[in-house]
Predict the structure.
Amino acid sequence: MKKIIPFAVLVIVLILALVFPSVETVTVATTKMDTGDTAWLLTSTALVLLMTPGLAFFYGGMVSKKNVLSTMLQSFVCMGVITIIWVVCGFSLCFGESIGGVIGNPSTFFMMKGMLGNATWKLAPTVPLVLFAMYQLKFAVITPALITGAFAERVRFNSYIIFLCLFLVFIYAPLAHATWHPDGILSKLGVLDFAGGTVVHMSAGWAALASALYLKQRNEPVHSPARISYVMLGTGLLWFGWFGFNAGSAFGANSLAATAIGTTTTASAAAAMTWLFFDILMGRKPSAMGACIGAVVGLVAITPAAGYVTISHSLVIGIVASVVSNLMVMWRSRTSIDDTLDVFPCHGVGGMVGMILTGVFAHTNVNSGNTTGNGLYYGHTHLFFVQLIALVGVSAFAFFGSLLLIKITDMISPLRVSAEEEVMGLDQSQHGEEL
């Protein structure tokens, strides 16, 4: 019966695609299309998609050799599963007509209806609506893929697919709607999250911690990374793609996008070097792995702030996030929490540091769209406390919500592989392949 379920789901999707061809044109907002803005968002969409294969290499190089392919596939499969859900109802749940400020109406863009003609999204009025939808899809794709680093080397692939779907619908979609939809509760509160510190990294980080606590330790918690060269390749792809992630969130080829590229570059560089220097200070050898992790932490931390702070302050954000995450990795290693690839210390904590420092360094001169006000550094407290409130609320929702979904998934299909399968390695036990 369980083997029939995936096929049945695909049949249902096929029927929906035939019944709802979505040829009608619905104009959500109209304005003059800008070819430059459209070209930049097309490029950014491709850049953000590249981040998921980049993450696959980043994670794949860190695990043991017998789990490289399974770990990489967990990232790649998101590009398929999430896309299907997004087309059916995912985009509507995130950006459809608001229901109480917490979720979108799933019928608003059901099966991508209303995507033709001159339809646009109200906050991105110079690019086609379908392009905006595809751009946002790439954010939804990489978010659950980030979580996989926490339960790497011990989760059943079929069960992971179930959790993937539940997470998108019940965790990611409400957070994306609340934060990025103009009628969302966090948006109305004045929360600033330029490109996903809350929606992407905090949600993934807290879900990672929940999964690590639920699944407990691996039978072989210590291993040598399979390919550090993979980690370096993955870091390069992530850094490259992150320009689309952050600068693309300006939704135009404009000065704000240029600022976001500047802050993204600077924060990542500062974090990478800080991680190396901090390791030396702590008596450890400077490592390629450390430099790569530091660079990614910097990218994570600057994500919510990229379009709200100056380049000089992005330097501070990168340095602070790198030190804090490094300390968190050290603390985690002394506990029984088996967050395999330190997703929570790097993505979760990095995202939280970025959210807080956005409330410290944001200034309206950088982004006139910031109507909440200046940050704590400039003598204003309102934005800082708004960011703190959002941090606490999102953390609780993402952690406890993910813990519930993990439990539900485990009841539907056992999450953890058997001890024998874990020792064999997931490449063989789950996929019948080897590196």
